[in-house]
Amino acid sequence: MSKRFYITTAIDYVNGQPHLGHAYEKIITDVIARAHRALGEEVFFLTGLDEHGQKVQQAAAAMGKEPQAYCDELAEDWRRFVDKLGLSNDEFIRTTQPRHKQWVQTVLNRLHAQGDFYLKEYRGFYSVKEETFLTEKDRRPDGSFDPAWGDVIELTEQNYYFRLGRHQPWLIDHIEANPDFIAPDYRRNEVLGFLKNNVLEDLCITRPVSRLNWGIPLPFDPNYVTYVWFDALSNYASLPGALGDPLVVQTLGLPHPPTGPELWPADIHVIGKDIIKFHAVYWPIMLKAMGLPLPKQVLVHGWWQKDGAKLSKSTGNIVDPVAVIDEWGLDAFRYYLVRELAIGPDGNWTDAGFSSRYHAELANGLGNLLNRTLNMVKRYRQGAVPQPHAELAPEANAVLDKLTTLLRHNELQEGLITIWSLVNRANQYIDQTAPFKLAKDPAQSTRLDQVLYNLLECCRVLAVLLSPYLPTTASRIFAQLNLGPVPHLLTEARWGKLPPGHKVGEPTPLFPRKDQPSK
Ligand code: MSP
User: Fold this and answer.
1) Pocket test for ligand 1, best of 12, 27, 306 (most atoms within 8 A of CB)
2) What is the CATH number of domain 330-493?
3) In the chain, domain spans
4) For the segment 20-34, what is each residue's pLDDT rounded down to a tens digit?
């Protein structure tokens, strides 16, 4: 066995409602996972839920439920959401699973034995909402705290702290020596700027049971549970450990047979811009202390807004992914999210923009190309594929090559733009060659064969190229071409694989128009 390409999403807070931001992160991760499979790699894609902490404890209590029962119910909604998005994840981790909790305790014991932790009394301010200690630096000039922190209380308590100081120099060196470790580069510069201009404060890794008991018990002190971020970040390595990844099992001396898939180190952690510090500072330090190698990349995406304003349930400024998928179809939703926004900057959802891309690019662009092509082949050639011809081969092969490079660099939006250059070229080719005119002239019969072959082969090529992005659409195109399952490898998009004489299937609109009354 060999090391798999291992990719993860952040794990979502179980008590939040699945929204556009969660959908986006999962979909771009799914596209990257599918792309790497199509590039011939063995892939492992992990997503899941972050279930401990004060917010969950309080929400469960408010509903008169035990926290575990409360999480179990919500976890079902999240699993349904994952299905709705058509994700190709290999596992779904929940931080309340014994396999995860045992791992966190093993790590805590190890780090404690190494002397990484110490007990200290803290007196000061604390944000209950964010479960974070605040310092004087967090105060505004008038002494108050930003309302984003919610209720800020003053408390005095003893906790365990993780010594971070000795890690700061090597982490800076690592980020400087590995330019891909944090992407895009402006995020990397942000982290470097922070690390170079601040002395890292030690990380509080516990909460007293008296205040919070919904957490993983500290194995060496029953008065504490583990800080939720220490617990949550661990998921990325606890799952490989639980499956028996030899490196993780051996490094941590776990009791499992070291016969599982080779996953660690992760190739990409996909996260949003708000949680960079946890992934690019705390997580690498935790791993170094455990003796595990660092992930190869933390890939940071931006945040979505709607109509230029923050998504917010209270103001009603939301996009409900499930409602959009029910109305427009899953692939239309996946298409818009990836086409509209590159991985990095913030994005802005507008219903008008969605409808416009749907009609112009999906219905008129791709859908029409397939529909017109199949109709002409049926009408002029009784549905049979003509002799191969390669007029559009150079352009199609160039798109395949360019897409292959873009996918290796997670340039998903550019990839779609590149694929659409072929959609547009093929539609333009219909207009230029005018097969409906050729069909009227028997002397042009060979030319008509050539044109139809080029169009059909373009449709086949496009389906293969699109499969990481729009897997359902790719299958539907193959079904209409009467070609069986879409091949797994992107190289199958190389020109000329459509066999002459093959009978195509029935055309049905891929993306029905929604801006005209139906007939
Ligand atoms: N539980 C933590 C992550 C722990 S990872 C070890 C968490 N959960 S979350 O549910 O609040 O967010 C999950 C992911 O969704 C994060 O990467 C976050 O950046 C992303 N998004 C939340 N709102 C978003 C948008 N409006 N737009 C895009 N992504 C957003 O943080």
Assistant:
1) 12
2) 1.10.730.10
3) 5-301, 330-493
4) 999 999 999 999 999
